[in-house]
Specification:
- 45% of the residues lie in helices and 15% in strands.
- Helix 11 crosses helix 12.
- Helix 13 links the parallel strand 9 and strand 10.
- The chain is built from 14 helices and twelve strands.
- With 345 residues, it is an alpha/beta fold.
């Protein structure tokens, strides 16, 4: 074993800079009242000695922890299998890193985890929370509100009280669905089916509503419920082929479900796009560009949504307006979508 060199102290920095310990403390912990020449001497001494501020002491001064909780209301088996979450986490991580803030990942495997997450948030460990993939019956929003933690949500809120006050980032799910269906109709398809996502999430409901906006009173047999997973896409596609074997197009609620759809159509001997045109939603490149054929899909910038969530939260923390103190007139930010055409439709 080798001895570890002792960590530089505030006193050592003060001696190197030729200032008092209190002056060093104010500079390294973000306090005011230090003239710039002295502050520069302290910063130079910090760099030369490799001093790292004590986070507990820093928090006492700044009332900040430089940490943000990212709460995903899904089990870890879903989170680590779905590229959507990886893309959103990457955007969040980039923005937090740019502001020298740490990401604390919290997952909810089941109902017992909700109280654990709420206790952690209420315990003063983080400055705020970014929460996404909520379900309509999820108690987390109420628990988080009770914890008094500034929060930005990913996705349009769909729970009862307090919806207007919630700060959230979402894409234009309904408008994107309309674009998808119009694209299929523009190809001359007349029997356009839809495989939904999990209908206890607002994104799936909005995409179903967008489909209905364009298709009007289409045969209800052309709609099958999925759950945003490949297996859910497979199951729903088989149901559709049994009910409406004459269908000639499918709008699928997300790219991951479209994997299952393409697999079932291939097994059934249906050519894509000659017999059945397929369009997804998300434009997750690890999937969309590698399917056979490559997937036409509705693009939402998932990584940018993550960055914007983090930016809104940090901006609110620094400016006093986020989460429980929403930005006036900007409680919801909805990003545009566009159809990315490839070979499947």
């Amino acid at each position: 074993m080798t001895e570890t060199a002792s960590r530089p102290t505030l006193e050592a920095v003060a001696a190197r800079a030729g200032v008092s310990r209190a002056t060093v403390s104010r500079v390294v912990n973000g306090g005011d009242g230090v003239r710039e020449p002295l502050a520069e001497r302290v910063r130079r001494a910090v760099e030369e000695l490799g001093y790292v501020p004590n986070q507990a002491a820093r928090s006492l001064v700044t009332r900040r922890h430089d940490a943000v909780a990212v709460v995903i209301a899904e089990p870890e088996t879903r989170v680590f299998a779905d590229p959507f979450f990886a893309l959103q986490l990457r955007g969040i991580s980039k923005e937090l890193t740019a502001h020298d803030s740490q990401l604390v990942l919290l997952l909810t495997e089941g109902r017992d985890d909700h109280a654990r997450v709420a206790r952690y948030l209420a315990g003063g460990h983080v400055d705020g929370a970014l929460v996404f993939s909520l379900h309509l019956d999820d108690p987390l929003p109420g628990l988080i509100h009770g914890a008094g933690v500034p929060t930005v949500f990913g996705g349009r809120p769909g729970w009862g009280e307090g919806v207007r006050e919630a700060v959230y980032v979402d894409c234009d799910n309904r408008g994107g669905a309309r674009q998808a269906v119009r694209h299929l109709l523009g190809l001359g398809r007349t029997r356009v089916a839809h495989i939904t996502g999990a209908l206890d999430q607002t994104s799936a409901v909005d995409r179903l509503d967008g489909y209905r906006d364009v298709m009007g009173d289409a045969d209800p047999a052309l709609v099958a419920q999925g759950d945003f997973t490949p297996s859910g896409g497979e199951r729903a596609m088989r149901e559709l082929l049994e009910r409406r074997p004459d269908l000639d197009a499918v709008f699928v609620a997300n790219d991951l479900s479209a994997l299952g759809v393409l697999r079932v159509l291939r097994e059934a001997g249906r050519r894509v796009p000659e017999d059945v045109a397929v369009i997804g939603f998300d434009d997750m490149l690890p999937i969309a560009e590698q399917t056979e054929p490559p997937l036409t899909t509705v693009r939402q910038d998932i990584e940018d949504m993550g960055r914007l969530m983090a930016r809104l939260l940090i901006g609110g923390l620094e400016g006093g307006s986020a989460g429980n103190d929403p930005v006036p007139g900007r409680s919801g930010v909805v990003l545009p979508t566009t159809v990315v055409r490839r070979a499947s439709a």
